[in-house]
Amino acid sequence: MVQLDRISHMRKFSRGTVIQAQGEACDIVGNIVEGVVKLSSASANGDDHIVGLLFPSDFFGRLFSEELQFSYEAVTDVTLCAMNKMDFERFLGEHPDVEHEMLKAKLDELDAVREWAAITNGHTTMQRVATLLYVFSRRSKNQHLDITAPTQLVVHVPLSRRDIADYLGTTPETLSRNIQTLARGKVIRIINAKHFELLNPGELIRHSGESRADLDRIASH
């Protein structure tokens, strides 16, 4: 921990900042302390597609690579515990037990990505929307929202409707219809475009088409 403290420092990025761009040299890595970061990939025609999201405690950056395959953009204000990539790679070489734990964490993350791919490819739009809301309800603990009633379970989805639709492989119009369906069924209450009160978690899980254990596993990575 003493060695990590020596090579790490806190960095803050305002919402909308491209922290590192696709194709750039990868020079920093670290962990998300607060906020949400989206990973996107530019297609040949210049369109950006969201390929992943990073939440507090997630690892940021690409080890053992010269350049980034994705862009990292702050969806909210972000605090990052950052380290120089070469310094951290050297640290891992000196501490193989830590490198082993990093490998296990990355394999768990890869499994979660594969599960998410199966959901987006083989499920209905409603199932994808319900899964996304459940995951955000589990992962958004460090996102700040001033709620007057402390018993409310409020889901904060900081992405725009267009970004959510892109991430789920649907259209903004279809996304909105499914959110309205959940609201009419009293599964959620729409507070505003990015905040939803979760009224019936069990019914949200049923709409997802997944078991709670599977959803919790996806949300934990």
How would the global form be characterised? Answer: globular
Looking at CATH, the homologous superfamily of the largest domain is Winged helix-like DNA-binding domain superfamily/Winged helix DNA-binding domain
- CATH hierarchy, class of the largest domain: Mainly Alpha
Helix percent reads 40-55%
Quantity of strands, as a count: 11
For this structure, the CATH topology of the largest domain is Arc Repressor Mutant, subunit A
- Overall domain count: 2
Give me the number of helical elements.
8
Ends apart, CA distance between termini:
23 Å
Q: Please compute the radius of gyration using only Cα atoms.
A: 18 Å
Tell me the CATH architecture of the largest domain. Answer: Orthogonal Bundle
SS-based class: alpha+beta
* Beta-strand content: 15-25%
Reading side by side through the largest sheet, how are the strands ordered?
1-8-3-6
Arithmetic mean of pLDDT: 86
Write down the secondary-structure element order: HEEEEEEEEHHHEHHEEHH
The biggest beta sheet is recorded as:
4 strands, antiparallel
